[in-house]
Structure formats: C-alpha cells, structure tokens
Design goal:
The protein is of the alpha+beta class. It is built from 21 helices and 22 strands. It has a four-stranded mixed β-sheet with strand order 1-12-11-10, with no helix packed on it. β6 (about 110) and β7 (about 115-120) form a beta hairpin. α10 (about 340-350) packs across α15 and α19 packs antiparallel against α20. Residues about 1-35 have low confidence and may be disordered.
Length: about 650
Amino acid sequence: MDTKKKSGLLAVGLVCAVALAACGGKSSNGDSAKKSAAPTTYKYVYSTDPDTFDYTITSRATNSDQLQNWEDGLLETNQYGQLEGALAKSYDVSKDGKTYTFHLRKGVKWSDSEGNTVADVTAQDFVTGLKHAVDGKSETLYVVQDSIKGLADYISGKDKNFDDVGVKAVDKYTVQYTLNQAESYFPSKTTYGVMYPVYAKFLKQQGKNFGKASADAILYNGAYILKNFTAKSVIEFKANPNYWDKKNVHVQDVKLTFNDGSDPDGLYKSFKKGEFSTARVYPANPSYKTVQKQDGNNIVWSDQGAATYNMTFNLNRKSYHDTSKTTSAQKSATKAAILNKNFRLAVQFALDKGAYNAQTNGKAAATKALRNTWTPYNFVNVDGKAYGDVVSADTKALNKEAFGDIDYTDGNNSTYNASKAKTYFAKAIKELGSKVSLPIHLDYPTLETSSGLVNSAKSIKESIEASLGKKNVVVDVQMLNLDKYNAATYAATAGKASDFDLSTASGWSPDYQDPSTYLDVYKPSTGSSLITLGLDAESSGNATAETKSVEKTVGLDKLESQLDKAEAITTDVNARYEAFAKAEATFNDSAVQIPLVSDGGTPSVTKVVPYTRAYSWSGSVAPTFKFMKLQKKTVTTKQFNKAKAAWQAKRTEIAKENQN
C-alpha cells in the first residue's frame, strides 16, 4: 500500500504499508465485551517517525496522526461524522455567513508532559496560534489564508499588522473569526492544526525549541499526553488526566512500535500472541491461508475512505541521486516525454491498477479499493447527483476519444486499456520526434524493506512495459532504504528534491467538505502538492521561470483560472460544484497524475469495537483514539457487518434530520 501525504494533517499521514488497519477504522456502537473486561491499552505499529510536534505548522500525516491525539481544536467529529464542540461548546454564525463566534468551554487545561496543569485554554490562545502558524510559515496556511479576512495580506507582507487579521479574542472565552466571504464549510476547517491554540507564555519560553519532536516541547489540551518517543523504536502515550472529556476516552494507553514493512506476516503472528490490538492481513501472501484457517470468520474489510493515493509524474526533475539513466540525453528524453500529454495518457492507460492493488489485497479483491477520480466520486452531491457523475460527463465532453468509455466510479479498472495505451504512445512519439530516442526510461523508487511496496512496484513495471513494449518504455525500479525513499518522494522539501520520474508515494485526503480541498493543492500560486510533481508553488518562494513554463505546458495555469472562478461562487452550492467539476475535467484531461486507490478497502483482524472511532470524509480524524473502544475477543465478521448496518442506518437518519 502506498504512502500518503495528507492535507492539513493529510490525508492522509504517511499511511504505512503495515499500519493501514490501525489508521483507518471508521465508527459506531456495539461493544459486545463486558466493560469491566475490555482492554484499555491499544498496541500496534507505525512506519515513519514524526519530525516535528508543532501542530500549527505541519501538514504531514506522519506528524499529525500522533499530534491530533494530543491537541484539540474548536470542533471535532463524532462516530457518525457530525461536527460537535471540542474546545468550543458552541458557536454562532452571522446572517451574512461571514462571522463565526465560538464560545469556549471554561476550565479546559493546558498540561505539560508530566501531566501537570499549566494554564487555562483561552480565546487569546487561538489568536496566538494563528499568528505563530503564519510566522512559522505553516504548511497548512492554504486552508484558511483566503478565508479569514486580512490573513492573505498579512502572510504576503502587504499588511504587517496582525491586528488587521480577522481573528480576535472578544473576551477570555470567546474567539471570533471574520471571513472574506461566506463559507458554509468553515467549521470543518477548525479541526486543523493551523487553527489550534498555542499558549503564548510557553511559546516564548521555548523559543525555537517549541514544537521539536520531544515530549516537553509542547503543551497538551487533548485526550492524550506523549509518554515516550524513541526514533525508529516506539511512540507511547497515555490518557491526559486533566482532559475535559475523559468520559469518551476508553483507551488509556497507546503503544506504537516502529515497523519498516519487511515482515507483513509478522503483524498477524503478533496479533495472535496478544502483542497487537489489530493487524492488517495480506490476501496476496501465502500465509493468508493460515489466517483463513484460524480466523476465517473474523476477517473484516474496511470501507473505502476519502483519501486518494495516486501516481504522479515528475514534470521538472532536477535530482538524479538514484537513477538508472547514464546520459544527459536519456534525462532530456524522459523529461520531454513526460511533458507530452499523449505520453502521460499512454502511461495511464498502460497501468493495470487491479494488478497493482492485488499485490496486497489479493486477486479476489483486486478492485476493492480502486479509485478513478481525484475527488472521490460521492464526495458531494450536485442537484441530487453524485459529484463524480458531473465530473465524468464533463471529462468525456472534453475528450471523448480518450475518456468516452471510462467508468469513473470506484472499484473498477476501466482506465486500463493496452490497445488505447499503444495508440496514445504512437501519437506522443510522432509529436516528440527527434526529442526522444527509445526506449524511454522511467525511474520509479520503492521502499526496499517493504515486500508489499516492492511487489507493487514490480506490478507497475510489468503492466506498463507489457502494454507499451520494453523497446519503447522501461520502468527502472529504484530500491531505496526508508530515509532515501522518503527524501526522494513523500518528504521532499522542494520540487527540485523530488528524485523520480514516476512515484506512488503520495496522496491526499480532504481538509473540508468542498471539492476545492482536493483541487487547490495543484494551484501554481499556492498548491501544496506541487512538490509531488517536481514543482513549487509561487508562495513558497522556490518557483522559477522554468517552473511557470512547465505549469503552462501541462495546463495547470488553466486549472487555476477555472478554480478561481469556481471559488468565487459562494451563494449557489450547485453552481459552485458544477464549476469545480469542469475544472476537475480539465485536470483529468491533463493527466499529470493518475488516481490509483483509496484508503480503506483492506482486510484485517481486530479487537477494536467496530465503528467506535471518530469518522469524517474530511478533517483530521481517522487515527484518533478518543471514542475508540476495545474488546477482549477478536471482532467477528458477523459482528462487524451488524455494526456497519447500524452505523449506516444512523448516518441515514442524521442526513434526513439535516435535510429537514
């Protein structure tokens, strides 16, 4: 399974190849174990060390997967995806929809790493938090910089007075945000670290040490406090004794052990020994027969989630630390090919997503997690239709020859078409002419210690080369250790550091319930996922004239223009979503990245009571341990399905109530 970059937390964090079951679970009720006998310690694995604890700055889910357990924002989602009060007990919205006033709970405590109380959480802490996020050049500023009045001007330096920014402490327990325009989804943005509070006195005391990856470098107001972090070894945290909502913290201790993915079968073995609370299992591995024999009635499949993992093309590669290319001619030929839309389409049609997913989920479930759109098909509705229906129609209208026969719904492999791949490759070669010589070499990095990722890489190599012919295209798999793999892909700090031609090391999950949350990440001006294309946003200060030329060549400038028009529509939701659908159709036609799979759609065995975890299609929720319940016995498939049906029924009931 791929790694993941998550917006605002992301999506996504680096969802490890071994820990997906731990990061996913959605939510409900149905604790069959007696409360007195229920375990209170959750034990599993993690795959990438967090590198900062500054929750207002980081966008990487490898960090925020932990941090969101230690810090609360104004609001949170419950087991059914409903936004509820967290640090805020309630909020008001002005008639014009531009002013949100949040009323804080009184007596919520900041605690240090020893569990000692330091101060009350107050409205001023939210003002301090946002200013610190700007001063620290938060990776998630894009979530709010165009929303909160005056914030964009302060970020750019046009206005140097933070008092002009639309956030203020009305009194000790009332914080107010003034927006540029009405945003019905603004409350969901409060679940992100960029909107979290910071205690000014502690921030000043810590100075540059604030937010370092050390337990004492932050204060805690959330459900848990970090107890131990030893790099590439263990992350342990315990329930916060001063937490305002202790009644909903059922798991008292969490122990996550570092795992590099080299022994996926070991997860199940450890689960059977009682060492883990859950375990991802792998139908493609021979050992799965043992799982079926011992726990055949206990295998549960998670629902597809909102995260979309993709394959990206490096549109402007500058780093060649790990490559099979031996000449500058090979480098220039690959770059020329990747900048050709028909070549990118050829690779898209050559890729067998089903075979790729089967490497971890097995042939029988090869299509279970497949995704064919960047924004999930059913993410929002447009005039009673799925958003994906509109995107599909617009994409086909834009390029019927390429996409007319594509089924964009989840769970099918219709983009795989070897015959069509050959057709578009021939078009590309005719257009490229003397700029390339065959074969075109594509470097594809993978994590050498993860058998699942290595097998997935081999699958990509096999399907692309089989579809297009080895004499035409060769995929050179680069076997890298964890540090090199992350540095070249997921954790690259700038476009020039992205060291690949093709990569599946990233993905995205939504910050809020609006299509802009997926599409804005590729805006040339501010897009936080441009790095995954070998590019840089203008706002980063790293964009060059060459960057802008490449963006224009592949049509990202046109995408931004369409997105700006869509975002200007604030009063007619259907018109807004229709405009975003047209922009996404343009993005599909550009083929700068290929959606592959979603999160979820994977099997596990577990002692986590089904559907007791917080749930949302957007925001930082999936890995939190608040609300989660454990049981003594392994969850059965029957129990899981019953809980799922009850959860879905409750969700339907809530949706009807909201409509009324």
